[in-house]
Design brief:
The complex is a heterodimer of chains A (about 100) and B (about 525). Chain A is built from four helices and no strands. With about 100 residues, chain A is an all-alpha fold. Helix content of chain B is about 75%, strand content about 0%. Classes of the chains: A mainly alpha (about 100), B mainly alpha (about 525). Chains A and B meet through helix 1, helix 2, helix 3 and helix 4 of A and helix 5, helix 6, helix 10, helix 11 and helix 13 of B.
Chain lengths: ~100, ~525
């Protein structure tokens, strides 16, 4: 797709495009921070409160087991959340903007 | 189980046959791929023909090394819960790859991640610096893989160390040299399917001993070795150590050149995103399997036999395979472990070759002016060089303690590659000087600090106390790399780079002009 320089400027300065970039950056950073908080929260719990994770929830099984496996599953679900958002909301905006550009 | 005798260390016919079948099939694929590997885009990026699902499998194939399979299962078998903490660190880097890197990387880059870092900066200095970070990561990772391969084969097949190293080197060079990225991708996919399938089957026949109830398995482990195996033990004692290692694992994953390179094999950003979703799912599933396998080995094989074969516990998964599945299944798992090393080394070699040819030879020495055929030829020569280097490193480091090299590779990836990539994608005021000094600081500090850390200073050089207290330097080297990048960029304004940053947004966010 070849576009004229002034059209590039128009798109870049359009409120729609800027909103898209803002949204994208904020979704990326929010999800990143959630992941880091969960992971380092887990690690710091181990560092400072091992007893909590050693609490039994069954005959021998500790609460640490579902929590540890849970972090793995959570990480995967988070990639699912992002994929869902990007496939629907983000890609739709991208398609609309690209169409707008090709109509120029 | 007390009378269980292992045949590890003797030639296992099943294993040898299965391994040769794997090599024959993958070389057949290489032959098929060779006919489709003529242009640079075909050699480096499989002509962007890989689907998101296929690439997700290939990514997990690249990431699930023999070290993570055998090492983590062994750690769980001996220490219980602590092994899980380690594997979680390896997994949580993947969501970050998706949120921060995968799509902009796909849209801005061509063949290597340095394409993205250098996109709006001055090509030559940035390419040289990122090649240093990239090659250091690859070489340290290669050392661990090659030494691991030699040692593993010795135990598995009773084959001499040197011949194992040479076989691994030669076969993987064939894949890369003739089949380029297309063959390498299919080797990864086949290996990933075999490894996931083998591990799943191992878990099923293990759980059959416990009425298919994992809780029963955990209870028995606890009865045999005490409740401590189901709770965190000594793995995290110093919180700073744990944080620093966590940073290396997470951000390092997002800076491994052979992983980043895979995002150029898919047609667009949507498929890049899908590949991370698939990869994270398979890798997470795999780590949960290794956790169960580790506990299975703990209960059904027992600590004494595991440490009797290998002090570090690395043979736990194989001993369990033999114990519950007999010699044939041991042969299968052993062959898959060997195939795993082969595939990972092939991926590393291809990314090393692309750094040498695409980033250094073409972009720096030839100032970007070469023809297709010329660049492919150089890339093939570079493949031979890295292949020879891999064999040489395997031979030189025989019998050495190279456990620190994987940690170092991740530390460099987290401190040199990741900061430069993220800042170039997200920060308008990033400059050429900022990038160069950030990369050099990160890579240099990672190496220096690991030398003075307990991992080398105490474990290898046998000094009483380490000069630098943390086992992994990433907390310091990564922070320093970001700080240096920011300060130097603010001191050396580059107007041209800032203007280009605005223009590249159409490509970063909409994919317009992406290759």
């Amino acid at each position: 797709m070849s576009i004229k320089q002034e059209d590039v400027r128009t798109i870049l300065e359009s409120e729609r495009f800027r909103a898209l970039v803002r949204k994208r950056v904020s979704v990326s950073l929010t999800l990143t921070i959630i992941m880091l908080v969960v992971y380092f929260g887990f690690i710091l719990t181990i560092a400072f409160n091992k007893e909590f994770l050693a609490n039994k929830i069954g005959e021998h099984v500790t609460i640490g087991l579902p929590i540890g496996i849970g972090v793995i599953v959570f990480a995967w679900l988070l990639t699912g959340v992002y994929t869902r958002w990007a496939n629907n909301s983000y890609d739709r905006s991208v398609r609309e903007l690209r169409k707008q550009i090709s109509d120029m | 189980m007390e009378t269980f005798q292992t045949t590890l260390g003797q030639a296992n016919i099943a294993s040898i046959i299965i391994f040769f079948c794997f090599v024959a099939i993958t070389l057949g694929i290489t032959y098929w791929a060779a006919k489709r590997t003529k242009t640079t885009s075909e050699f480096y990026a499989a002509d962007r023909s890989i689907s998101g699902f296929q690439n997700g499998l290939a990514l997990s194939g690249d990431y699930m090394s023999a070290a993570s399979f055998l090492g983590i299962a062994g750690m769980v078998a001996l220490k219980g819960y602590d092994g899980l903490i380690y594997s979680i660190g390896f997994l949580v880097g993947w969501p970050l790859v998706m949120f921060l890197i995968a799509e902009p990387l796909r849209n801005l880059g061509k063949f290597t991640f340095a394409d993205v870092v250098a996109f709006r900066l001055r090509q030559k200095p940035v390419r040289v610096a990122s090649s240093i970070g990239s090659l250091m990561t690859i070489i340290f990772y290669l050392i661990a893989q090659m030494v691991g391969a030699g040692a593993l084969i010795q135990i598995l097949f009773g084959l001499p160390y040197e011949s194992a190293v040479v076989i691994v080197g030669l076969v993987m060079v064939m894949y890369v040299l003739f089949g380029g990225m297309l063959a390498t991708t299919w080797v990864q996919i086949i290996k990933a399917v075999l490894l996931l399938g083998g591990a799943t089957f191992l878990v099923i026949i293990t759980l059959a001993h416990f009425n298919f109830n994992p809780i029963e398995l955990f209870n028995q482990a606890s009865l045999k070795y005490g409740d401590a195996v189901l709770a965190p033990g000594g793995f995290v004692t110093n919180p700073w150590d744990a944080i620093s290692l966590g940073i290396a694992l997470i951000l390092g994953t997002a800076g491994l050149p052979h992983i980043l390179m895979r995002f150029f094999t898919v047609p667009d950003a949507k498929q890049a995103r899908k590949s991370v979703f698939v990869a994270t799912g398979f890798i997470g599933y795999f780590y949960i399997l290794t956790f169960v396998i580790g506990f299975g080995a703990m209960v059904l094989v027992g600590h004494d036999i595991i440490t009797g074969v290998d002090k570090g516990g690395n043979m736990a998964a194989l001993l369990l395979s033999e114990s519950v599945g007999g010699q044939l299944f041991l042969g299968f798992i052993a062959a898959v472990a060997f195939a795993t090393i082969l595939a990972v080394v092939a991926g590393l070699t291809l990314s090393g070759a692309s750094t040498l040819s695409h980033d250094l030879y073409v972009s720096v020495f030839k100032s970007g002016k070469t023809d297709e055929a010329g660049e492919v030829r150089v890339a093939k020569i570079a493949t031979l060089c890295i292949g020879a280097l891999a064999i040489l490193l395997g031979l030189v480091f025989k019998g050495q303690n190279v456990a620190f090299t994987v940690g170092l590779a991740f530390a460099i990836a987290a401190s040199a590659n990741f900061p430069s990539l993220v800042m170039s994608i997200l920060w308008k005021k990033y400059t050429t000087q900022g990038a160069v000094w950030s990369i050099l600081t990160g890579a240099g500090l990672a190496v220096i600090l690991i030398f003075f850390s307990p991992t080398v200073w105490v474990d290898i050089l046998h000094y009483e106390e380490a000069v630098f207290p943390l086992k992994n330097p990433a907390l310091f080297s990564m922070t320093a790399s970001f700080l240096v990048g920011i300060v130097v960029s603010l001191l050396t304004k580059e107007k041209e780079a800032q203007d280009k940053f605005e223009d590249e947004k159409l490509r970063t966010y909409l994919g317009i002009g992406a290759e």
